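User: Quick sanity check before I run a bigger batch. Here is a single chain. Can you write out its predicted 3D structure?
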Amino acid sequence: MTRRGALVGVVAAVLAVAGLGAYLLWPAPTLNAADMGAVLPAERDLPGFVPYDGLTGALSVPAGNKEGRSVLAGAGLDKQCRKWRKEGDGWACRHLRGAGMVVLERSENVFFRVKSDVLAYDDEDAAEAAWDGLVADNRDEIHKIRGAKERSSDLGDAALSFEAPGVTVLAIRIETVVVEAIVWDGSDQVSEADEDAMVEKWPALQLSKIEKQLG
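Assistant: Done. Predicted structure follows.
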């Protein structure tokens, strides 16, 4: 090998090590348990909507979700993960740092509801694996419904939309955070335009809060 070739090899090795060091020193940002409450939309963020205690998506809400929102960390998160594993949703719990769940319903039409599950992970690999689990879970359910559709979405770093009559579910990953955002109309009293507008508004609202906390 020539001296020049050896020098190029040394420089490449130094750059590779430097890149690895930068990754180790500055890993992808994630949410701490203390951030979870701040990323959940509240009724003030969605005028005309009030808290509701339950709407099941891929993940069941805790029994104590009486105020329409739950922030899970520590022992509470461990307890909920035991429940999720029993329900076949253990994919959500690997390297999970914290979780937040919120359900709101339109006060003038209690059958029009929105829900978010926000799952914060240690790193992007764990978040990608959880997103894969969320997608698989929704595919299993949505394909049982006649007329259901799966579409790509440009939200976050990865996203898919699952649409069936009266419900739209979005599975979204943004860096180390995974979101399931649901818009549900159980009454057929909401106009298609209003429902479509909420399908745009709800996940955008949720992601804006996450992005603010991630910095």
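Residues 42 and 51 are 8 Å apart (CA to CA).

User: Great, the batch can go ahead then.
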